[in-house]
Amino acid sequence: DGRFWGARGGVDLQWTAQDRTSLSGRWGGRDMTSARFADFRTWFSPGADTSRYTSDETSYHRPGFLSLNFEQRRIFGEPAAGRNARPEHELTARLGWWRRYRDGETQTELLTIEGADTTITSGQRALTTGPADRLNLTLDYVLPLRETDKLEAGYQGRFEQAREGNRTFEYDTATGEYVFRERFSRDAEASQNINALYATYAGEWQALGYKGGLRGERAERIITAGDTAYEIPVRWDLFPTAHISYQLPADAQLMASYARRIGRTRHFYLDPFPVWQDAYTVVQGNPALLPEYIDSWELGTLLPFGASRLSAELFHRVSHNKVERIISLYPETTGVMLHTFENVGADRSLGLELMLDLTPVKWYTLTLGGDIYDYRVEGELEGRDFSYSSFNYSGRLGNEIRLPTNTRVQLNGRYHSPSVTSQGRREGALMTDLGVRQQFLNRQLNVTLQVRDLFGTGRHEDESGGEGYDFYSKSISTRQSPVATLNLSWNFNNFRPERRRRDDDIDLGPSDGDM
Fold first, then answer.
1. Which residues are paired to 166 by β-bridges?
2. Are 261 and 240 in contact (CB under 8 A)?
3. CB 448 within 8 A of CB 487
């Protein structure tokens, strides 16, 4: 249950035909209340008595945010005109500042069930507060060369700092009150600074298009928990990219590409302070965690026909320093599971992706997509080598209806198959979402209804441990469904953020991770 609110605004100042300044800002917040109910069955050896407990959790969060953005653009020479004009010779500087403040409370109680009697066995209450700041700096330069070629170069900087205070209270069964526990309370701080330079060159030669680039970056990070500072080693990285395309008759294309990317770890994954999620679960970060590096090779084709198109792509992706959530027995308390994060090794995916966009009539678009691939994960965990594989597949179905009454309806479905993990198996899941947007008053007033998990099929089911381990854990997570959200927005003076000028879709992105 929650309420969201916010406002945004901006102004463009066109000083001359070559100079433009843009200013924008956004402010908002939300009140969120959630509940989580867990049913536990525990035993310590096969055939032993099974104990049953339930965990009842309620959370209240009240985060707010503020963002300010500045952009200065300078065009050298006369501005280009027309869709097919050559790229403009320009220099653009951007500065963005963002702040989020979090204020929340979570209370978890473990209940023992004996017949019709229920007793509070233990309980934890956690109060969290703290701001997070981010500053983004970019400088982009574009130099046209010949008729269609261009050179792009620039600088990108991102500077983050987050502070969090955590106060923990424990339930006293003798008094029935929650008592402050200094041992499980702490203040934490995380900072991350990234400086990067990049350059790309793109051009065409007859039917051949090509683009290559290189990005170099320096990243540093510090995590402080209590009186201990964990300084992550400074990382210097290079990220090359290459893309070629060949134009075929009837606007068809052949394409091939390579890219190296990075998957950065979240601050939460690095925080070494143990956090009790419930009476049987402790979550603890790993400050020695390395970022993931992904090498991706792709070979594909695009076949347009009328207002529709078909694309097919062969891909091979390798992730190094694969990050996974790892489960083990918590050494300080019997029967408690420790969840942490480790670089388990590498995973590889080799397969085919297909996508079909059909527009049989102007007011309806059908999107069908899916992929099939061989998945392998291998590495070392807890001193043991492992290698697992599975045949994976996923599918996506999208329907969009555009009515003459300024109404848009989207119905989307997604499915992913079961897959192996470094410690076990993740089951498949199906999710269906519905979105309806109605525009009023010359499209100034927008009313959007979103319904997540329309048929209540969304769930997470994971298995870990078993043979070769000293534990077995099976987790099934569901939520009350469907989840409905109503959004109202009013645009003044035709204001629309630059990002949304190119994207009018209803926000029905993946939500299966929001349990």
1. 128, 186
2. no
3. yes
